[in-house]
Amino acid sequence: MRPTPLPKKTKATKRALLVVNPKARRGGETIAPALDVLKASGIEVVDMTAGKDQPIDELIRKQATGCDLVIVGGGDGTLNAAAPALVDLKLPLGVLPLGTANDFARTVGIPPDPVKAAEVIAQGLLTPIDLGEVNGHLFFNVASIGFSAELAADLSDKAKKRWGKLGYGIVAARLLARSRLFSAHLDHDGTTEKIRTLQISVGNGKHYGGGMTVEETATADDGRLDFYSLEVDHWWRLLALLPSLRRGTQGRWDDVRAFQTTEVTVRTSRPRPVNTDGELCTTTPAHFRIRPKALSVFVPKRK
Hints:
The chain has 303 residues and is α+β, with helices and mostly antiparallel strands. Helices cover 28% and strands 34% of the residues. It has a six-stranded antiparallel sheet with strand order 6-5-18-15-8-9. It has a six-stranded antiparallel sheet with strand order 14-13-10-7-16-17.
């Protein structure tokens, strides 16, 4: 008498809400091959496209019922918009980098190719990451006041789609000639400092601005904010600083104030816009703090 064969084990299916931002630089490209990778790994994808009038976090809150994870297709601004819902719902995040700079993806090692990024999600390795917060607004990479905020205001979606990362340089060169220092007060770690600065940056992650690095040792899970202030006398001094700004070693320069903290407040004589992950979201006075291990993200396996 033959033994009854055991039933074959089937791969457990997970349900993922996929939200793609069509305004992202590569948001209109087909991601069908990436979806095939997810399907083959046992992930059922509920595909939603963000509309013009519906905020991304609102879309996630309405459509994520019964989902095990959320996959966001877009750039850093799209991730920024999704963050409140992801944190509140405690759903893990998969990233398909479809934006211009994709600085967060670069920080955690997610490949720029959507198919390779889908393979990362399929592998299922999750890690908790920190988020920064300023006046109640969350950010993945860097929040800034001054030059970078002016850059974010002037860099249109059209310029990003046409020029990509080069668009940052084109607009930055135009702004640089008319940028001026401004005064600010910093409250942190029991001290108050008055400064004159061209730009203040407060980083949670490592990369920002399509090629800049907030601090060479920064990670998205180190439990700290990396602060720096560019206190340069002349705009041409910023050009000399550029290689260090790309490497994240600007804190070694005499005219750059840099420190690590978990909380800092920036006060200015008049309200100044604050740029978070490329989007203007609030103004000074700006209270920054770290949100440790606020979100879980699918990341590549370490080699």
